[in-house]
Design goal:
Elements (H helix, E strand, L loop, with lengths): L3 H15 L6 E4 L10 H6 L5 E7 L2 E6 L3 E5 L5 E5 L9 E7 L2 E6 L6 E4 L7 H4 L12 H8 L6 H5 L10 H11 L12 H20 L40 E5 L2 E5 L13 H15 L1
Antiparallel strand pairs: 1-6, 2-3, 3-4, 4-8, 5-7, 6-7, 9-10
Helix pairs in contact: 1-7, 6-7
């Protein structure tokens, strides 16, 4: 799924091509996405200039004079800059044309969406979102305060969009590894030094991923049609049973909140007192099942 770095890469890729240009045409090939494409609202925007393009969490916000569009890339969607008359590919669903430039949406799973809202920041999808991890307001103090009473695994917490947005599974696993924190640690068991390290690595990992164009594990491509390269530098994610890049211990994988959680048992140690009873029992069951 495109996460914050992929969406930020997309925003930066389309922004110089579209900002300030006037929408001249709309074409919807497949209106049945996660939500129906709002064709009437799109047509009403024709002849309106695109004032700004912003990102909030994993949503792109396209601001016109009298309305705005909220775009989500779904599980495997992507936007690309093309010419209005370029050949349509299978799974291309809609196109916004700005003179000689077009923005086209591609989504094999059709789980992404485009909706119109003249006050996008007040839309129910956005109002309960937590802090942006790349914003100045994302301080160690604020991060520590958000974790203070959380007795959930730390990986579950940093992937909770009500706490901090956009940290997907890949970036959570990598940040925890670099911070030396086991993904199943109870959030309240982290020291301020550990929280500080984790905070620093979250910011650094996300910025590095953006610089490298995001992570291409399946379908994601940048607006220029090229894949991201961050996946080629992963230390633990997707590397179960492969040697840790630091200590050569085999990488392990556990399930937390239904998501695969990759870690090094030596570099990210865990004591029984640092995890929940439920997680300890689940881990014992996994070990027992694997030994049969």
């Amino acid at each position: 799924m495109p996460e914050l770095p992929e969406v930020e890469t997309t925003k930066r890729g389309i922004l110089p091509h579209l900002t300030g240009k006037t929408l001249t045409a709309v074409f919807v090939k497949q209106p049945k996405l996660r939500y129906p494409v709002p064709i009437t609202e799109l047509d009403a925007l024709i002849n309106s200039p695109l004032i700004a393009i912003n990102r909030r969490a994993k949503y792109l916000l396209l601001h016109f004079e009298d309305n705005a569009l909220i775009i989500h890339l779904g599980m495997a969607g992507s936007l690309r800059i093309t010419t209005p008359d370029s050949e349509w590919r299978k799974h291309d669903h809609w196109q916004l044309t700005f003179g000689e430039t077009a923005l086209r949406y591609h989504d094999m799973r059709r789980f992404g969406f485009l909706i119109a809202d003249n006050k996008p920041e007040s839309h129910p999808l956005l109002t309960k979102l937590g802090i942006e991890p790349l914003a100045d307001a994302f301080t160690v103090e604020r991060f520590a305060a958000a974790l203070k009473k959380r007795r959930s695994p730390i990986k579950t917490c940093i992937m909770n969009n009500a706490i901090v947005v956009g940290i997907g599974n890949i970036y959570a696993c990598e940040s925890l590894f670099l911070a030396g924190v086991h993904p199943a640690r109870i959030a309240t068991s982290l020291t301020i030094d550990e929280i500080t390290r984790l905070h620093q690595h979250i910011v650094a990992i996300l910025n590095r991923a953006i610089a490298q164009g995001g992570s291409t594990l399946k379908d994601f491509v940048n607006p220029d049609g090229n894949p991201g390269y961050f996946a080629q530098t992963l230390a633990v994610y997707g590397r179960e049973n492969k040697p840790c890049p630091v200590c050569k211990t085999p990488i392990e994988n556990i399930k937390l909140a239904g998501r695969s959680s990759f870690y090094c048992p030596k570099c990210q140690p865990l004591t029984p007192s640092q995890t929940t009873r439920r997680t300890r029992q689940k881990r014992r069951n996994e070990i027992t099942s694997s030994s049969k």
